[in-house]
Design brief:
Structural class of chain A: mainly alpha
Distance between the termini of chain A: 59 Å
Oligomer: homodimer
Strand content of chain A: under 5%
Number of helices of chain A: 9
Largest interface: A-B, 50 and 47 residues
Largest sheet of chain A: none
CATH class of one domain in chain A: Mainly Alpha
Shape of chain A: elongated
Number of strands of chain A: 0
Chain lengths: ~220, ~220
DNA sequence: TGCGACTTAGACTGGTCGGTCCTATATTGC
DNA sequence: GCAATATAGGACCGACCAGTCTAAGTCGCA
């Protein structure tokens, strides 16, 4: 016996990511998860709102697992980890064809408006991400420029990534997001003291395209 | 007789900004604009979609007028103008109590999904904004660091502002957006060559008259 | 005086949606 | 064997929603 509830959650998460919470009907979820009738759905969830909350928890958690795993990877230079994290968001968005956005952007905004319960949940998750990034930046202590507020930079990073996801939803072109991600990495590098060793160079060779996967590995470039 | 159609558009724009396009029903619009029946609404608009498009045009235009007026102000240093523009977005969001977001962020994402017609419209508007910012950055020619791609930086600025608006919708705290805006200004300053004046300081004096003399202010790189 | 544009007013259609209720049949643990 | 739980299938309710339709009143203008 497979876990039907998990299947429902998976289907709902996919639908919500693609078309939003309010635009996803219970009937959609039932059809997509191969259920037979509403009673079965309501056997597992007491309401659509409960479904929404569980989807939120789940997808944020899953995203967190992947994203935070990168951020915590102990063997890689902290700043490089941040770059990899940014790349992972870009790749995830590219995989979604620039359309869906869970748990980023559209869904966050829409669900935040759909109820105070949703909003505080999303707020808390953003906080956790920011915290993780902040602590990463602080691990590179002594490399941050004087006066740079790590917590604020963390917010900035999350906000810019959110905005980048939004832009791809409007333009439907992943290269827009790639450009933003590159600039974001450059911004992060600029928060480091000049005498710090690593960091993607200041823009040197043409302003154009660069392969993703990693901006600049820790040992490679020093300018 | 006042212009009823304009009243309908105003009411609809307010509702859509607050609760989104799909969540705003025709009946809501009718009630908010003091109409009496649907026939009257359908006398002015052939469908909800047409209403949406006109609201989009209008609010983007209005926003454009304000924002672009700042960007074009010929008497102020280009970079300083950009800072003022950023401030104006922060102020606008603060005025809205961090909730609504027209024409930024949530509405753009939602409407972009609501139909290809909407999407291309929004895309075009973003393009125009980015273009304006790009040309502004290029006016400060000789001050930009080598290899800095003005068009890409423009996208980055818009994306970050979008993301910042989103963050305030989730956190409901304007100071988050203020922090992001400060960092964004700092980022812009960092795109300038070291020998150009730099400094992320907050601008203070508000702009005065908005002259429509768009280009032609070539002698830009004052200090 | 008559025409056409605008306004007020609301009933109605066909559809969707969240949610309830009811009836059955499997499966599982005790 | 029994009871709890899970699965299946669907009728139904009240609500809301986009859009249509009818009908009548106001106003400017030719």
């Amino acid at each position: 016996m497979r876990d039907r509830k998990a299947e429902i959650l998976d289907a709902a998460a996919r639908l919500i990511a693609r078309q939003g919470y309010k635009q996803t009907s219970i009937d959609d979820v039932i059809k997509a998860s191969g259920l037979c009738g509403k009673s079965h759905f309501y056997h597992h969830f007491k309401s659509k709102e409960e479904l929404g909350k569980e989807v939120l928890n789940r997808s944020f958690e899953r995203f967190g697992e992947r994203g935070l795993a990168i951020l915590r990877e102990p063997l890689i230079d902290p700043i490089e980890r941040l770059n990899l994290f940014i790349d992972s968001i870009v790749v995830a968005q590219a995989e979604r064809g620039c359309v869906a956005s869970s748990p980023f952007c559209g869904v966050a905004a829409e669900m935040a408006d759909a109820g105070e319960g949703f909003r505080t949940r999303i707020d808390a998750v953003f906080d956790r991400w920011c915290d993780q990034i902040r602590s990463l930046l602080e691990q590179s202590d002594g490399r941050l420029r004087d006066g740079v507020d790590a917590a604020r930079i963390a917010r900035f990073i999350i906000a810019t990534l959110e905005g980048a996801v939004l832009m791809t939803r409007v333009t439907r072109e992943i290269k827009v997001m790639q450009g933003i991600a590159e600039d974001l990495k450059r911004f992060i590098a600029m928060q480091l003291r000049d005498d710090a060793f690593s960091g993607p160079r200041s823009p040197s060779t043409g302003g154009g395209q660069q392969e993703r996967g990693s901006g600049a590995l820790a040992g490679s470039s020093a300018t």
